[in-house]
From TrEMBL:
UniProt-listed SUPFAM superfamilies: UDP-Glycosyltransferase/glycogen phosphorylase (SSF53756)
Protein's organism: Pseudomonas inefficax
Name of the protein in question: Glycosyltransferase subfamily 4-like N-terminal domain-containing protein
Domain Glycosyltransferase subfamily 4-like N-terminal: 18-202
InterPro entries, A to Z: Glyco_trans_4-like_N (IPR028098)
GO molecular function: glycosyltransferase activity
Length: 408
């Protein structure tokens, strides 16, 4: 059995709130001849919780046989200098000699670009251990930051990140991308397209049992769970709810927003300013509770701002959770891929258009319950075929085997 180290600063253990991509892949990899160890920061990204005791600098935990090595980093809130310090602390801890000695010797190292410094640390470690480096591209840095308005395109920081980005692409034996059209961004940099493998996010269907069809009473529950960040554009959803609450025929529609993020306080203030009566803001729930939560919805709303970077596609954990939850989805996004349209699991809505979203909700509420149930089942079938982690782990194992072969 070969071993891979996965470096993901924000990797989430099962039971916490947030995505568990690498845990799920690691849990399914042994069936394909690989074991995985996950190296993550001690501070949980969403809650800011410190996992380590005051006396601990590292700790090795096991979750269903998957090793998680937690490296101490300082606590932070928001996206300011404290978060940047946390990123650099993690990077330094990873490359510090002897810090990862509790883990089995790797045959391959994956550096995941939740931020590029973690990926760079993976490249350094792979060189030190004389093993192949695999670069997992979750976000296109710095392109995403530029499109979100957080970086000037020709700034010194943006130019520096481009140099690092290109070095990582060239250094990697294989490049794993989550976005289906990321190759259109990467290949023009002079990168061999044969190095690129698309392995999107997914759902562990064993942990996500197929729910019963929703039997709606008088209330129609529209639900969102996930991050409350600038890219999610949840102000658009609140504006749509304002329109809905002004329509007497839609007095049964209730919006539940579950999760956390830097925009949550602002969203709550906006809801109060609008005088919304049928909106609730709720705390994030552990991943294991998501299936039961999803079963309480009549429909889900997936919303993103209209940013150019989405032309390369999306691969959102929550979207696949929505589809696995077997309910219709309103897809408010202009992206290079559209799983809802491909599967027939709901309606596509123009992003940033609250009136169109309100109209789509009205259209859903008028549908017979059996038609909504059919949409939900279509989405469930789609993720069962395309996004089960057992299948995705097989794809990752194939990519790791190719990286080893190319290094010989």
């Amino acid at each position: 059995m070969k071993n891979v180290w996965i470096l993901n600063h924000y990797a989430q253990e099962p039971g916490g709130a947030g995505g568990t991509r690498h845990y799920q892949l690691a849990k399914n990899l042994p069936a394909h001849g690989w074991e995985a160890s996950i190296v993550a920061a001690s501070v949980e990204h969403q809650s800011g919780k410190q996992r380590l005791a005051d006396t601990e600098t590292i700790r090795l935990d096991q979750y269903s046989g998957v090793p998680f090595l937690w490296l101490r980093t300082s606590e932070y809130k928001g996206n300011g200098t404290a978060r940047m310090r946390n990123m650099l602390e993690y990077t330094w801890q990873v490359i510090k000699p002897g810090k990862l000695s509790p883990l089995k010797k790797p045959d391959v190292i994956i550096g995941s670009s939740v931020h590029p410094f973690a990926a760079a640390a993976g490249a350094v470690l792979a060189w030190r251990h004389k093993v192949p480096f695999v670069f997992e591209v979750r976000d296109l840095w710095p392109e995403t930051l530029i499109d979100m308005g957080r970086l000037e395109r020709n700034s010194f920081i943006a130019r520096s990140l481009r140099v690092l980005e290109k070095w990582l692409y060239k250094r990697a034996k294989r490049i794993v991308v989550l976005l289906p059209k990321a190759h259109e961004y990467i290949v023009p940099m002079g990168i061999d397209p044969k190095k690129i493998a698309w392995i999107p996010n997914g759902v562990d269907l064993q942990d996500f049992p197929c729910p019963a069809d929703k039997v709606s009473g008088d209330e129609f529950t529209l639900m969102y769970f996930g991050a409350h960040g600038p890219a999610n554009g949840l102000d658009n959803v609140l504006r749509a709810q304002q329109i809905i609450e002004q329509r007497p025929e839609m007095s049964n529609v209730r919006l539940r927003i579950i999760g956390n993020g830097p925009c949550k306080a602002e969203l709550i203030t906006m809801a109060e300013k609008f005088g919304l009566k049928r909106v609730s803001f709720e705390d994030p729930v552990p991943k294991r509770e998501i299936p039961a939560l999803a079963a309480q919805a009549d429909a889900f709303v997936f919303n993103l701002i209209n940013a150019p970077v989405f032309k390369y596609g999306i691969s959102s954990n929550k979207l696949f959770d929505f589809m696995a939850g077997q309910r219709p989805v309103l897809f408010c996004c202009d992206a290079g891929n559209n799983p809802i349209e491909d599967s027939g699991a709901g309606y596509t809505v123009q992003p940033g258009n609250p009136e169109a979203l309100a109209d789509a909700v009205a259209r859903l509420t008028r549908l017979p319950s059996e038609d909504r149930a059919a949409m939900g089942r279509a989405g469930r079938r789609y993720v069962e075929v395309e996004h089960g982690f057992d299948k995705l782990a097989g794809s990752l194992a194939g990519c790791l085997n190719e990286a080893c072969e190319s290094s010989r």
